[in-house]
Amino acid sequence: MREYYEREEIIERDGFFGGEEIIEREEIVRRGAFGREEIIERETIVERPGFLGGFFGGEEIVEREEIIERDSFF
Prior knowledge:
- The chain is mainly beta.
- It has 1 helix and 4 strands.
- It has one helix spanning about 50-55, and strands at about 1-15, 20-30, 35-50, 60-70.
- Strands 1-2-3-4 form a 4-stranded antiparallel sheet, with no helix packed on it.
- The radius of gyration is 18 Å and the shape is elongated.
- The two termini are about 20 Å apart.
């Protein structure tokens, strides 16, 4: 079985009083015998509001996970 792993992190900031958005992506690909393939994709997004929105605190977190299985027998 072969496995491939990729991770990416992006941080976006909106100016002096702006908020920030942190995006973490992760992809795992596993390949087995006879063309069998399993792909796992995970994504986490954290949004922190800017000056007035952030004045009262709080953040929004969105998580997503997707699993794809493929069987390919010639």
